[in-house]
Amino acid sequence: MGESSDPTNLQELARHLGISVTTVSRVLSGQARRFRISKQTEERIQTAAAQFGVRPDPIGASLRLGRTRTIGLIVPDVANPFFAAFAQGIERRFRKEGYAVLLCDSAEDADVEAELLRVMLSRKAEGLIIAPVGQKLGAVSALVETTVPVVLMDRIFPDLPFPMVATDNIAAAKEAVHHLTGRGHRRIACLRGLEGSFPDGERFKGFQAALKEAGIPLTDCPMAGGDYTAATAAKATRDIFQNAKPKNRPTAIIPFGGQITLGLLESLHALNLSVPEAVSVVAFDEQPWSSLVSPPLTTVAQPVEEMARLAASRLLEVLAGKVHARENRLEVLKAKIVSRESVRTIS
């Protein structure tokens, strides 16, 4: 038998060994352990394949097994370090399991997200992990009618029958406020994220609850924003500080996302307002540059690596038939405050 990628070679090798072509294909594609093929059988197949120069044809194998070994991953902004780190964790995990990950960026656009989902389904992705745009159910809810396993993360829809992974955003926002009130701040602003998205709504609930617990009137705490972009945050920051009398300006501010923090810092610099002397900052999320800016930023760090691990594990469980594909299962993880130099104490 000469070396060839023609599937016939796998069939001939299987006949030669008296072993099913499926077993031969699984061994040669590195899936012996996953399918609990004995070590003796694995070594016998590999020895014979090396002797005859047989190589597996991944496309042909996929057709025979009815598998594409492809996972679809959709995030709303791949340039955001939070989603980039999540994507990296997903890709590494599935690569170990013999899957390719098709990563797509929905660009914070529900229509783009719907088109990407159609593409994923047409390409027979075996499973989907989605961080939705998050404002409306739309195409995500339509996936309930398909048989494709789905896991949602971050901007979830709690009522959908999918496994979901998210941060406890209410508790995280409360911790951010407590960090500031514990240092004497009582005029605390917030820059909100995408209106109608799950994380923004939960963080705002936590923000309001913590102010109420501290006995701080909401009227003393300006709120602005509307999406997760730096441009919107920059304008909102200018509006907050230019429209308030100096004595009524907030002494601290909580931006609800990484790009929002960039817009905040841009405007504070333009307004000649120093951190933390003029205004203290506690930012969502921990970014690669959070400790590098001057001063280093206090952040609310979400457990992005753990989120990626859980999301991948839940999808793999469904693919292995261990759990039902349409199980409503929300797993909530705790964020933590990383204290640095962007918060001053008011005596």
CATH architecture of the largest domain: 3-Layer(aba) Sandwich
Q: Could you give the order of strands across the largest sheet?
A: 2-1-3-4-5-11
Task: Write down the oligomeric state.
Answer: single chain
Mean pLDDT over the full residue set: 91
Going by CATH, what is the homologous superfamily of the largest domain?
Answer: Response regulator
Radius of gyration: 25 Å
* Tally of DSSP helical segments: 12
Question: SSE order in H/E notation?
Answer: HHHHEHEHEHEEHEHEHEHEEHEE
Residue runs with pLDDT of under 50 for 5 or more positions: 1-8
- Beta-strand content estimate: 15-25%
**Main sheet characteristics:** 6 strands, parallel
Terminal residue distance: 84 Å
Could you name the CATH topology of the largest domain? Rossmann fold
Going by helix content, strand content and strand pairing, the class is alpha/beta
Text of the CATH class of the largest domain: Alpha Beta
Helix content: 40-55%
